[in-house]
Write a structure and sequence with these properties.
Residues 83-110 form a coiled coil. By secondary structure, the protein is an alpha+beta fold. Helices cover 50% and strands 18% of the residues. A hairpin with a 2-residue loop joins strand 2 (63-67) and strand 3.
């Protein structure tokens, strides 16, 4: 069963994804020489497909076979060793920044879903003034527990008017007219 899932996962990866993963692995390896069998296992790419990738990359002088199951990365002769090292450092920095961005995004999601955020979230008068179409309307501020519900009901007795219904199971509700 686990073998089936692994096989399905292997087959769903595109050739582009497989090639990028392979190149990333060989370029970042210390000796820039890798064993295809272990690479196949670690990347989850079928060995047959990995050989297809290697054959194409070999044809354009990106890698070369050094033994039956080993290939070596051939650096671009137009790029100096310093430039290549700088590119590796930039790749590492890019990965670090992506991880940091993901971490920050996770923190933001946790914060916005926390009770503290819901309790202390507010809108000030300047935020309301910036809204389009606010001229001639009244604004009210409600201070309550996070469980407060607010329902706007069309008032049939007052043409064009609304009735607001506020409820909180935890505590009281303070209502302030902003303007």
């Amino acid at each position: 069963m686990a073998e089936e899932v692994t096989k399905q996962k292997k087959e769903k990866r595109s050739l582009v994804d497989c090639t990028q993963a392979f190149l990333q692995k060989i370029v970042t390896s210390d000796s820039q020489e890798i064993d295809l069998n272990s690479t196949s296992e670690s990347l989850g790419i079928q060995i047959r497909r990995l050989y297809d990738i290697v054959n194409v990359l070999s044809g354009i002088n990106v890698v070369k076979h050094v033994s039956k199951n080993k290939v070596k990365y051939l650096p671009n002769p137009n790029i100096s060793i310093d430039e290549e090292q700088a590119m590796r450092e930039l790749d590492a920095k890019e990965k670090e920044l992506a991880e940091l961005e993901a971490s920050i995004q996770h923190e933001i999601e946790e914060f916005t879903n926390s009770l503290d955020y819901k309790y202390y979230a507010y809108v000030d008068k300047n935020d309301l003034i910036k809204l389009p179409g606010t001229d001639g309307h009244r604004f009210y501020a409600f201070k309550s527990q996070p469980d407060m519900t607010l329902e706007a009901i069309d008032d049939e007795n007052n043409e064009g008017g609304m009735t607001l219904k506020c409820e909180s199971q935890i505590g009281g509700i303070d209502i302030f007219e902003v303007w």
